[in-house]
Design goal:
single chain, alpha/beta, Alpha-Beta Plaits, six-stranded mixed beta sheet, about 15% strand, binds flavin mononucleotide, binds iron/sulfur cluster
C-alpha cells in the first residue's frame, strides 16, 4: 500500500508520549519517503477543531495511560473528533512502570470506531510523571530499540499489503473499569479533587498557565486553579523554579506506594 503522508498525533502533558510518537512517525515517514506532520492535541486550543484523515495517510496516535485507561477527559476527543476516513494508524500508549492495563485496547477500539485501520500498536514504559525516581530513565535504549522494531514491522506489513491489514490483537479490555489507586496501606485512595499548590519560589513567569492541557490555571493568579485538574503534572514538570507541587495526603500515599511496590522493570510491548 502507498503511504503519502505520516502524522504524529498525540496528547502528552509531560512529554514522554510526544517523544515516542514523533520518533516512530519520523522513522515511518523516512521509510516511506513521505512527509511527516505533527498534530499535538495536548493544549485546549488544539482540540477545538476535529481532524480528518484519508486513505494514504498513516497516523501514529499516542496517549499516556491514566488509571489503566485513556485519560477520561480526552475520551470524547478520541471517540468523536477524529475521522479516520480509511487511513492507517499505529496506536501507542505510554505508562509509568505500573501497568498499561486496558489503555492500549481502549485506544485501538477508539481508532477502529473512528474509521482508522490499526496496523500496529505498542505500550511503552516511561518515567511515572508522579515521581522523580520511578522508571526515571525510561524510555531507555531498549525501549527505543523496541520502538524501532515496531516501526520496521509496521512498514513491512504495509509495504506487503494490497488491502489494509487486519488490526493486531492487543491485551486488555476497552470496556474495563478504571484502575483504583491504592495507598501505602493497600486501601483505595481518592484524590480526584487534588490540585497543585505553588511555593514562594514562583517568579510569575506563566509557563505553568501555558502548559496546562485543561487551561485550568488562572493567568492573573497562578496560585489559583479554578478549573479541572487531571493531575497530569505538566505544570509541575514545566515550572522552571520547581514551585508547583501536590501535597494532598491521599495522592502522596499513592505515589509512595508506587515507588515502594513498582520498582521492578515493567516491559515495553508491541504488536503487529
Ligand atoms: C492521572 C494519572 C494516572 C496515571 N495512571 C497510570 C497507570 O494506571 N499506570 C501506569 O503505569 N502509569 C500511570 N500514569 C503514569 C503515566 O502514564 C506516565 O507518566 C506517562 O508516560 C505520562 O505521559 P506524558 O509524559 O506524555 O504526559 C498515570 C499518570 C497520571 C497523571
Ligand atoms: S511556571 Fe512556576 S514560576 Fe512560572 S508562574 Fe508557574 S509556578 Fe510560578
Ligand atoms: S493544574 Fe492540573 S491539569 Fe493543569 S497542568 Fe497542572 S496538574 Fe495538569
Amino acid at each position: 500500500m502507498e503511504i503519502k503522508r505520516v502524522y504524529a498525533l498525540y496528547f502528552s502533558p509531560a512529554g514522554k508520549t510526544r517523544a515516542l510518537t514523533t520518533t516512530l512517525a519520523t522513522a515511518l515517514a523516512e521509510s516511506f519517503g513521505a512527509p511527516m506532520e505533527v498534530r499535538d492535541i495536548t493544549l485546549p486550543a488544539a482540540r477545538e477543531e476535529g481532524q480528518t484523515f484519508t486513505a494514504g495517510d498513516l497516523v501514529v496516535c499516542g496517549s499516556p495511560t491514566y488509571a489503566g485507561k485513556l485519560p477520561n477527559k480526552l475520551l470524547p476527543y478520541w471517540k468523536e473528533r477524529l475521522t479516520g476516513g480509511g487511513a492507517l494508524a499505529v496506536a501507542l500508549v505510554s505508562f509509568g512502570n505500573r501497568a498499561f492495563d486496558n489503555s492500549l485496547a481502549e485506544l485501538c477500539a477508539c481508532l477502529g470506531g473512528d474509521g482508522f485501520h490499526v496496523v500496529g500498536a505498542g505500550a511503552f514504559a516511561c518515567r511515572h510523571v508522579f515521581s522523580d525516581t520511578l522508571a526515571a530513565q525510561r524510555p531507555d535504549h531498549d525501549d527505543y530499540a523496541a520502538l524501532a522494531k515496531l516501526g520496521a514491522a509496521v512498514a513491512t506489513r504495509i509495504a506487503k499489503a494490497n488491502e489494509p491489514p487486519a488490526a493486531p490483537e492487543v491485551p486488555g479490555d476497552a470496556a474495563a473499569p478504571y484502575y483504583v489507586p491504592k495507598g501505602l496501606d493497600g486501601a483505595p485512595k481518592v484524590f480526584l479533587k487534588a490540585k497543585p499548590k505553588t511555593s514562594a519560589d514562583c517568579i510569575g513567569c506563566g509557563v505553568c498557565v501555558a502548559s496546562c492541557p485543561m487551561g485550568s490555571i488562572d493567568p492573573a493568579d497562578v496560585t489559583s486553579v479554578p478549573g479541572l485538574c487531571i493531575k497530569c503534572h505538566a505544570c509541575v514538570r514545566a515550572c522552571p523554579m520547581g514551585a508547583k507541587y501536590f501535597d494532598d495526603p491521599a495522592f502522596l500515599s499513592h505515589k509512595a506506594m508506587l515507588e515502594r511496590d513498582f520498582q521492578r522493570r515493567a516491559e515495553t510491548q508491541w504488536f503487529v
